[in-house]
Amino acid sequence: MAEYDLTGVNLPVNLDAEQSVLGAVLMDGDAMAEIATILQPEYFHVSLHRDIYAVMLQMFLSGERIDIVTVLDKVMQQGIFETAEQAKEYLARLTTAVPSISSVGKYANIVSEKYMVRSLIYASKEIIDTANAGGESADTLIDFAEQKIFDIRSGNEVKGLTHISGVVLDRVHALDELYRTASENGEPAMTGLSTLYKDLDKRIHGLNKSDLIILAARPGMGKTSFAMNIATNVGKKHIDKAIAVFSLEMSKEQIVSRMICSEASLSSDEMRTGRLTKEKWRDVGRAADILSRLNIYIDDTAGVNVAGIKSKLRRVKNLGLVVIDYLQLMSSTKNYGGNRVVEISDITRNLKIMAKELDVPVICLSQLARGPEQRPDKRPLLSDLRESGSIEQDADIVMFLYRNAYYDKTDPNTNACECIVAKNRHGEPGTVPLGWDGQYTRFTNAAVMPTE
Q1: Exposure b/e, 269-281, CB count within 10 A at least 16 = b
Q2: How far apart are CA 450 and CA 452, in angstroms?
Q3: Pick from 34, 317, 296, 323: which is nearest to 153 by CA?
Q4: Which of 63-77, 169-183, 293-307 has the lowest mean pLDDT?
Q5: Where is pLDDT greater, at 178 or 294?
Q6: Nearest 5°: CA angle at 282, between 280 and 288?
Q7: Given a cut of 70, is residue 105 above it in pLDDT?
Q8: Which of 27, 231, 302, 400 suits a disulfide with 380, CB 3.0-4.6 Å?
Q9: Which band of pLDDT confidence, cut at 50, 70 and 90, is reported for residue 187?
Q10: Where do the CATH 1.10.860.10 domains begin and end in the chain?
């Protein structure tokens, strides 16, 4: 945690709780299993307590027995105390400070609570110092302040150097969950949210937290429809997750109309004219019921910037996915004198930062330049990304949609579509087959697509 001049400020600390946590673990090593997910070393205010707890956490992760003798040996190996006598005396004092070993979880919560309040004080001081320094716009300062508070609430407060033991513990728990899921289902588990497109999920391992995913295509390929299909599928599969859709081009009514068409197998002509059979009306009612139950939020504000999007997203509980349609319609908070390439670079960089800060996957749609139109093979390439090479640099995954029948009217496979994963930080690039049902603006798994 950064150091600030806090003269006159009484930092909230409960030394008894810190000592009781450590003493309880020394008396019963199994207590670590209860508090390891609650406390990180930096939660302790006293530096000596941080060091001792870090040793205990390392021993817990490596499966070593934890008691006063083994911890004494470890702290001496790491030079935490100058002499063995000092170490013995202090560790013994910790064990006598424990009112009740069974209450170790309550003591840990007190330590965590005090740490959060101290974090809020530090954050407030940093916000004041940044505002007093000047040089930043009001929008930038507000975003900075909101982010500081959001990080504390979500447990992502920037702490500077973090001991690896806490990160290792988190990763081991995540791996254990994947292992259990794979064992129960009999097939590999995904690290991210399922799109319900099986081949795509296998290729990118689902939509992973903190990923910036660029979905690009030439006009008419169906990128908006595909993004909305993914949003709907994630909403169905992960009912506890909130999905936020920012549509800079289409109104929320247009977006929902497309979603109803896809869900109810309703043609765009039927949607526009209202000429429906009784059976179709039943399908519409069923689709409306399904969609209205999904945890999807739509914002159709034109020309929104990343700071505005982030501010709105911080207020969404249990956010799982963000979809932005599309990149080239976004604006920047800075003035680049009409240099659109630099402006897009700034936007994509901030989108990646946003995905990391909010710890959610962000799907951002993008236009392609006219390069594919001028080549015999019209499949898009990374170099076709419009207006900025930084799009490729900042993105974790870049996907292109390509339908050969769009260019070759003699192609009998009018339902065939390729999702080209051109960049993939989670695995190998490759092409995923999809089905395209243009009548209902719907993409499907290729295996279940009806043949002509």
Answers
A1: ebbeeeeeeeeee
A2: 7
A3: 317
A4: 169-183
A5: 294
A6: 100
A7: yes
A8: 400
A9: low
A10: 15-171
Across 419-426, average pLDDT: 91
Structure confidence at residue 340 (pLDDT): 74
**Residue of 34, 113, 126, 249 marked active site:** 249
CATH fold group of domain 192-448: Rossmann fold (3.40.50)
What top-level class would CATH report for the domain 15-171? mainly alpha
Greatest C-alpha distance within the chain:
89
166 closest CA partner among 36, 62, 277, 313: 36
Say how far apart CA 327 and CA 332 lie, in whole Å: 11
- 302, 248 Cβ separation under 8 angstroms: yes
Q: Is the dihedral of CA 95, 99, 105, 109 positive or negative?
A: negative
Q: Give the per-residue pLDDT at 388.
A: 62
C-alpha distances out from residue 103 to 17, 25, 171, 443, Å = 10, 11, 27, 54
Q: Residue 243, exposed/middle/buried by CB under 10 A (0-12, 13-18, 19+)?
A: buried
Residue 214 to residue 325: CA distance in whole angstroms: 10
Delimit the CATH 3.40.50.300 region(s) of the chain.
Answer: 192-448
pLDDT score of 14: 93
Cα 24 to chain centroid distance, Å, stands at 36
Structure tokens at 431: 């092409």
Q: Which helix (H) or strand (E) holds 149?
A: helix 138-154
- pLDDT mean over 90-104: 92
Q: Which residue has the higher pLDDT, 329 or 214?
A: 214
Instruction: Please say if 249 is a catalytic residue.
Output: yes
Measured between its terminal Cα atoms, the distance across the chain in Å is: 63
Is there a contact between 325 and 248 (Cβ–Cβ < 8 Å)? yes
Confidence of residue 448 (pLDDT cuts 50, 70, 90): very low
Measured between alpha carbons, how far is 272 from 55 in angstroms, rounded to an integer? 67
